[in-house]
Amino acid sequence: MRDGYFVIDADGHVIEFLDNARALRRHMDPRFRDQPLGGGGFKDRGSGGKFGKNPESPAVQIEDMNREGIDIGVLYPTILLTVWRLKERDFAVDLHRAYNDWLAEFCSHNPERLKGVAALPSMDPEASARELERAVTQLGFIGGMAHT
């Protein structure tokens, strides 16, 4: 709470590839674990810490939220925003499912304050609908995001 106001950061982000995506790859189908994840094009916009830092863990995310007076963080991907370019449907579906599992693990550190938004594989609308249903009913997410 900041100055008596309940604060929700409705556009918070995680850095899902921070550890070279080892944690994320753990959730992937073994046949896809060694494939490039398609996260090219991401630029660190933090300007060497001038505009913040990349949260390296859920604990750091919560510390930063506390410092800024943020009560709830609604979390979206960062690098996964660039994977709309993927061409292989099965790989894209698996990568989005794995990311959502990873994000659920991240949010489980403090589920009252960290709220996940499912990343959905736009190239397969039926898989997107199934993944949104799973993410909300099983993972506790509060919504879904489709790539533009």
Structural summary, described in words:
With 148 residues, the chain is α/β, with parallel strands linked by helices. It is built from four helices and four strands; from the N terminus they run βααβαβαβ. The protein has helices at residues 22-25, 58-68, 89-107, 125-137, and strands at residues 8-13, 72-76, 114-120, 143-146. Strands 1-2-3-4 form a four-stranded parallel β-sheet. α4 links the parallel β3 and β4 (143-146). α3 (89-107) runs parallel beside α4 (125-137). The longest helix has 19 residues, at 89-107. The mean pLDDT is 88.
Number of strands: 4
What's the helix count?
4
In round numbers, the mean pLDDT is: 88
Uncertain residue ranges: none
Question: How much helix is in the residues?
Answer: 25-40%
Order of helices and strands: EHHEHEHE
Beta content comes to: 5-15%
Structural class by sheet pairing and helices: alpha/beta
**Sheet with most strands: strand arrangement:** 1-2-3-4
Compute the CA-based radius of gyration: 15 Å
Q: Mind summarizing the main beta sheet?
A: 4 strands, parallel
**CA-CA gap between termini:** 33 Å
Estimate the global geometry from the Cα principal axes.
globular
